[in-house]
Amino acid sequence: MNLVSLIHLIFGHSPASVLAGTLKGWAFIFLTALFLYTLINKAIRLVKRSETRLQEHLLTLEEAQEELSATKETLQAQLLRVRAREARFRRIFQGVSSGVMILHPAGTVTEANEAAQSLLGLSLSQLTGAEPFWPDWQARCENGLPFTWQNIAASLSPKQPAVLAVPFGSPVTLAAAANPPANLSGRVRISSARFPARWLAYTIHPICQPGSAAPEEIVLTLEDVTRQKNLEEQEARIMAELEHSQERYREILEHMSNAAVVFEIQENGQQFIIREFNRRAEILEQVNRQDVLGRSLTEVFPYAEQSGICTVLRRVRKTGHPEQFPAIYYPNGQDRRWRENYVYRLSTAEIVCLYRDVTARKQAEEELWQEKERAQITLHSIGDGVITTDVHGTVEYLNPIAEELTGWSLAEAKGKRFDEVFHIVSEIDAKEVENPIARCLKERRIVGLANHTVLIHRHNHPFAIEDSAAPVLDRQGNLIGAVLVFHDVSDKRALLRQMTHQAHHDALTGLPNRLLFNDRLRQAIAQARRKNHHIAILFLDIDRFKLVNDTLGHAVGDHLLRSIAARLKGLLRESDTVGRQGGDEFILILPEIFGRTEAGTVAQKILTVFSTPFLLEQEEVFITPSIGISLYPDDGTDTETLVRHADAAMYSAKELGRNNYQFFTPAQNETAQSRLEIENSLRRALANNELVIHYQPVISVLSRAVVGVEALVRWQHPHKGLLLPSSFISVAEDTGLIIPLGEWVLRSACNQVHAWHKSGYPLRVAVNLSARQFKQPQLAETIRAVLKETSLKPDSLELEITESIAADDLDLTITILRSLKDMGIRISIDDFGTGFSSLSYLRRFPIDTLKIDKSFVADILPRQGEEIVTAIIDLAQTLKLKVIAEGVETPAQLDFLAAKHCDEIQGYLFSKPLPHEEIGQFLAHRFEQKT
Description:
By secondary structure, the chain is α+β, with helices and mostly antiparallel strands. The chain is 47% helix and 24% strand.
C-alpha cells in the first residue's frame, strides 16, 4: 500500500486532498506562531518601558521626598516666625487704643482687647459668654434697634439661622433684628448704670479663605466717638435753630408790609444779583419772583440805573452806612409810580432794599396842594361870599364877593368884629337878625340864616341873602374858628315868587294845577263841612283831542287848550275853580251849591259853550267834552275820593257816546275798580308768565295746505281761567302795558315759528300790532332785535294793523310801514271794510295783504254780504294784493271764496285757535297728509 493509499485509508480521502489539508494546517500553525511571537515581543518591550518609567518615578519620588524634607524644615521655620508674629500681634492687639474684637462666624466673641472691654464696659468673660451681662447694659444702633454679635455674624453669613441667641437678652428672630448697614460700619450707643452712655463707631472686617463666601472669622473694631457724636448733635441743634431762624426770617420777610429785595454784589460792585424777593415786592412790581431771582437788577428793571437806585446801592456798599431817601418817581414798565426806599448793608456784604409804594400819599399830597390852590382860586371866583373868623369872632378873611356885598375890603375888615362887618336885618320888619357866627361858635354846629334875611351894605345898599355858618375844628376836634358862606338871592327871591306862581299853575293855560287845585278843594271841603253845603267836582275830558294834535299839530293843540281854559273861566263864578289835570283833562270845583240840579245846570252850560266851534288856523273845529260829576258829601268826603269818582263818571260819559255829562254811581266805581284790578292783575300776569299764545292756521284756498298761522294772545288767569283779548287788551292799551305784552307775543311767536321751520313746517306767522305799539318810536329796532334773537327770516313774519291805525296819521304811517317793508316784513290790513276804507291809503301804503273781516264772511250766505266780499277781493286783485278771509265756518262759504279766487282763509271750518301743543299735532297731521 502506498503512501497515497494509506492516506486515503486513514483519512478517508485521497492523498491529494489529504496533502492539501496538511498544508493548510501547517500554514495555520505558522501564522499562529508568528502572531504569538509578535505579541510576546510587544509585551516584552512594554515591560521594559514600564521598568524604565518606574525607575524614573522612583527617582522623582526620591527627589520629592528630599523636597518635602526641605519644605518641612521651611514650615517649621515659618511656624516659629508665625508664632513670633502672633506674639507681636497680641501685643499690638492689646496695645492699640481702638477696641478690637474677634467674632466666630456663629456670632460668639472669641477675642477682645482691653480697649474693647473698656469701651463696652464688659469683661472678656462677659463678652465671651462665660458670665452673664449686666442686666442694665444696652447697646443700640442709631436706628434704635439692638446691636448684637449674632446679627453681625448673620449679616455676613450666606445662610442665616431662623433664630439667634442674643448675648444680653432673649433670643430674637432675624426678622425682628436689625442687620448692620451694607457698608459694614455704623455707630452704636452703649449705656449702663455703671458708666455714662457713650457712642462707639464700629467697623466689621470679615476674614475669608480665597474662593469662599463664608467668613472664618470676623474682626470688629470700635472707636469712641461720643465727643464727635455730641458735637454732631450740637451741630444738628445749631443747624435746626439756624434753619428755624431762617424760616422765621423768611416768614417775617414774606409778611412784611414793605417790599424787600436782597442783592448779592458781583463784578466789583457793578452787578446787583437778586437773591431774595418777598411777596410784597411781587405785588408792587407785578412780577413772579421765580422770574427775577438770580438775575441782575438792571436786567429785570432797566429803569434802576436811570432812576438813581443803582447809585444808592453802590454808595451803601462802599460806605456801609444805611440810607433813607425820599420818594422817587419812576415808570415800572406798566404805570408810573412813587417809591420810598431804605437801603442798608448786611454783614454778609449783601445789600437789602426795603421800599414801599407811596403813590397814594404822593397823589394825596399833590391833590392836597391842588385842592389848596383850587380852593384859593375857587374862593376868588365863586359867586358866594366867604368870611372866616377866629374863635372869638374876629374877621380873618373875606373873598372878593364878600368884599363886594359888605362894602369892606379884606385889609379894612381884618381884625374887626364880625357883626361890625356883616350887618343883617329881617326883610319883613327891618329888625336885626341874630349873628350866625356867634351862634355857630357857641353851639359848635352849622347854623343857617333866618328866612327873609337882608344884608346891609356898608353904604346902605340892601341885598337879600342866604347863608350858613359852620365851625372850624383842628385835628383834635378843638374849635379854632368859623366860616360863613353867603350869596345874593335878590334875583332868586324874585324868581321864587314867580316860580311859586308857576308851581301852582299850569304853564300852558295859567289855570291852577293839580297841587293848587287839591289845596283849594281841601279848603272848600273844610268850609262846606262847617256850613253844611254841597260841593260839585266836574271832571272834563276833551273828546278826540288826540286827532287834533296828530292832524293839525301840537302847537294848534296847545292853542285849543288855552281857548278851552278861557271859555271855562268865563263861564264860572268867582268862587269856582277850574284847573288843568294834565293833557286834555280839566277839573272844576263848584263850592256852596245845593245839589245835583245846580251841578247839572253848570255841566249843561259847559256843553253849550263847546257847541260853538273853535277857530284854529282859520278853520272852525268842533270839539265836544265828556263830563263826570261827583258831589260832596254824597260821593266822598276827601279830595282823592271825589276826584276819583268824578273821573269814573267821566269814563261812563265817554262810553255813552261822548258829549254828555254823567253823575257818579257806585256801578261806575265798580267799573273803575274792575279796570284797576285788571291792570294790576295784568302786570302780575306779565311777571308770572300767565299769558299764552294760541295759533289759528291759515289755509291756502287753492291747495288746502297750511301756509301760516296767526298768533292770538290769551290770558290763563289763575282764578278766572282762560281770558280772551277783549277782556284785557283795552286796559293794556290805556295803561301802556300793551308795549311789553306786544313785544312778548312777537318774540314768543317768532321763536315758535323758527322751531317749526327746523321741524320742516315752512310757515309764516301773523302778529297783530295795536295803535300804541305801532306809534312806538322804537318799533322797527325792537322788531329787528327780535328777528335777530330768534333767527327768524323777516319774510316769515307778517304784521297786522287795523284801518283805524293806518288812517290816523297818513305820513307817519307810511314812514313806519316803509321801514318795516325795507326789512323784508309782510304787512296786512286787518278787519278791512269795517273802518275808514280809502283807495288813497291803499295805493300809498306798502302793504301785502287785505284781511276780510269775519262779519262780512258771515253775511255771504244767504246773499247778504256777497257784494262787499266780492268788491274787496276784486279791489285787492286790482292792487295786486293777497286776500285772506277770516271767520270761514261752512263749506258753502269756502266754495264761494274759492270761486272768487280768494287766496287764503282762516276759520273754524278748518281749526279754531289752538294752544301750542294742539297746533303742533294739527300741523304734524296736515303735513303728513300732504306728503
